[in-house]
Amino acid sequence: MDLNQQFIWLLGVTILAFLSYRKKALTGSGAIASFVVGALITFAFSLHGLLLLAAFFLSSTVLGRLLQRKDENEESFEEKGEKRDAKQVLANGGWAAFASLFFLFVNHPLWYIAFVASLAAVNSDTWASSIGKRSKTPPKMIITGEVVSIGQSGGTTLLGNLGAIAGSMFIVLTAMSFQFLSPVDGIPWWTWLIIVAIGFVSQWIDALAGALFQALNYCGVCDAYTEKKNHCHQRTKTIKGKQWIDNDVVNHLCSFSAFLMGAIVGIFLYF
Ligand SMILES: [Zn+2]
After folding, report:
1. What is the pLDDT of residue 83?
2. What pLDDT does 74 receive?
């Protein structure tokens, strides 16, 4: 691979991270983490990998903003806003970066499948929540079926599920469209279909873990359920789940499941 060209893409990563910081899509730590993730992906998969990362990052940022509800502001249900910090970036892109690192050292195509699967999963997850938020029917808890607040972890809607499939397909279609730039070729069509399914299933694992283990807090001042640690200038009471299991931990589980399933598919394909 042409090292000079790699440095040009790396310059692109730097500019993208900086612009995202300036546009308030990333915090300072988030921009640094994005640079590291972007650099590993660039060295492993060159422009092809970078395009996949950009497809995830740009589409989920744009969708998140376009589909934002008018009533969604500082008092939204979730702990964090649209500005991503390092923890969030690594929860989404960390396993894709790990797959890139393995590919750099071992240079085996199975890590490419793990890489695409992991990005398909986090894209599926972000598209599901952005698109699902616009559902006219309220979300139902994944296991119990009880109606829950919009944005609450573990709540799903039909629209959200369609968004999840579309999000996973978007990454796979981008990968297929730019195959001519990829260092790995000859991936059979059914493997691409399996990667779409892995993305979707991992997003479900994410929702399931959110429903079962993620912390749900109660604010006694305004009588509301929230994922925030503080509400109405007071510490909330954890009524369900574990406080340390937040959105980032659940996202790690999503991207890691896909990474693992992708690697297993790679093993079956190549060994
Ligand atoms: Zn409150």
Report:
1. 81
2. 47
Helix intervals (H) in the chain: 3-22, 28-66, 86-106, 110-132, 158-177, 189-213, 247-270
What is the Å distance from ligand 1's center to 211 Cα? 21
Q: What's the gap in Å between 243 CA and the centre of ligand 1? A: 17
**Cα(221) to centroid of ligand 1, in Å?**
5
Average pLDDT of the chain is 91
Give the global pTM.
0.90
Provide the residue count of the chain: 271
Give residue-wise pLDDT tens across range 189-243. 999 999 999 999 999 999 999 888 888 889 999 998 888 888 999 999 988 888 8
Ligand 1 centroid to 90 CA: how many Å?
Answer: 30
* Residue 230, strand partner residues: 235
* Distance (Å) from CA 239 to ligand 1 centroid: 14
**What is the Å distance from ligand 1's center to 240 Cα?**
17
How many angstroms does the Cα of residue 270 sit away from the middle of ligand 1?
A: 54
Instruction: Give percent above pLDDT 70 in the chain.
Output: 95
Q: Can you say how many angstroms the Cα of residue 1 is from the centroid of all Cα atoms in its chain?
A: 29
Query: How far apart are the CA of 223 and the centre of ligand 1, in A?
Result: 6
Q: How far is the CA of 60 from the centre of ligand 1 (A)?
A: 29
pLDDT at 75: 54
- Domain boundary assignment for the chain: 3-67+85-270
Q: How far is the CA of 231 from the centre of ligand 1 (A)?
A: 4
More confident position, 71 or 175:
175
Q: Which residues pair with 156 in a beta bridge?
A: 140
